[in-house]
Amino acid sequence: APKNYLRKEIGSLQAEEQNVELVGTVVQVFDPRFFFVHPETGKRLLGNEEGVTPVLSYVMNAVLDDGSGNIRCVFWKNQTNHLLGKTDGEVVQFKDGAVSFENVKTDLLGEELKLRGRIKKNEMFERLEFNVQFVEKADPKEELARLEK
């Protein structure tokens, strides 16, 4: 059964909150970062492991603003694919600039997104980050209906 996600304002978020839904505008987009993972566990590989053929994975960050504040959102591979409407193979082409990511960035800026996930504290940067588990384009009609309630 789907968990109940609670709509929150970015300005009111606390570390370690789960099942949070945010709606906001993409105000900044960062290039995807690529790294190798174990084909079975999906865990990041730091060195060469015997007899393991690593699989390329990626993560992408974008900043979402809802008027109350903004937060860096972390999109792992599947969520990046959903966000960009692309396949693994298409996203991998952005690695090493084989295909320019600039147009993708431009298209994403100003997009209204509805994101669901959990809040993590990034200890290194002393800031909250949003770990995205579900991503969809926000539906303006649905959002207006919410406001009118």
Summarize the structure in short.
With 149 residues, the chain is an alpha+beta fold.
Overview of this protein structure:
The chain is α+β, with helices and mostly antiparallel strands. It is built from 4 helices and 7 strands, in the order E-E-E-E-E-H-H-H-E-E-H. It has helices at 77-84, 88-92, 102-108, 140-148; strands at residues 6-7, 20-29, 33-37, 55-65, 70-75, 112-122, 127-137. The chain has a 5-stranded mixed beta barrel. A hairpin with a 4-residue loop joins strand 6 and strand 7 (127-137). The protein is globular and about 60 Å long.
Fraction of residues in β-strands:
35-45%
* Secondary-structure content class: alpha+beta
The major β-sheet equals: 5 strands, mixed, barrel
Number of strands: 7
Query: What's the rounded overall pLDDT mean?
Result: 93
Q: Give the strand order of the largest sheet, numbering strands 1, 2, ... along the chain.
A: 2-4-5-7-6
List the helices and strands and how they pair.
Elements (H helix, E strand, L loop, with lengths): L5 E2 L12 E10 L3 E5 L17 E11 L4 E6 L1 H8 L3 H5 L9 H7 L3 E11 L4 E11 L2 H9 L1
Parallel strand pairs: 1-2, 5-7
Antiparallel strand pairs: 2-4, 2-6, 3-4, 4-5, 6-7
Features:
single chain; 149 residues; alpha+beta; 4 helices; 19% helix
